[in-house]
Amino acid sequence: MLVAATSGTRFVLGSGSAVDFAGLCWICVGTMMFAASAKSLNQVFEKYNDAKLKRTMQRPLPSGHITRPHAIA
């Protein structure tokens, strides 16, 4: 959410006197989707390391709640 808020703020500040609210919504939604996919891919790459750490072993991939292809999709 912080990344989306930051990109939205930069969009507003760079808009000048008129803010395109539809464009602002698309920027925020696109940024959130990009951040979510990056987080998912990070969990795919770190599955085996996450399984070793007590703090991260309950994440969906190491715990077996979802499969690797499901996470990639």
The overall strand count is: 0
Helix content: over 70%
Q: What's the order of the H and E elements?
A: HHHHH
- DSSP strand (E) fraction? under 5%
Shape descriptor: elongated
Individual helix count: 5
**Measured distance between first and last alpha carbons:** 22 Å
Sheet with the most strands, sense and barrel status: none
Radius of gyration: 17 Å
Segments where pLDDT lies below 50 for 5+ residues?
Answer: none
Structural class determined from secondary elements: mainly alpha
Assembly state here?
single chain
Average pLDDT over all residues: 91
Description:
The chain has 73 residues and is an all-alpha fold. The chain has a domain at 1-51. Helices cover 73% and strands 0% of the residues. α1 (2-14) runs antiparallel to α2. It is elongated. The two termini are 22 Å apart. The model has no long low-confidence stretch (mean pLDDT 91).
What's a quick, concise take on this entry?
The protein is mainly α. It contains 5 helices and no strands. Helix 1 (2-14) packs antiparallel against helix 2 (21-45).
Topology:
Blueprint: H1 2-14, H2 21-45, H3 47-52, H4 60-63, H5 68-72
Helix pairs in contact: 1-2
Question: Main traits of this protein?
Answer:
5 helices, 73 residues, mainly alpha
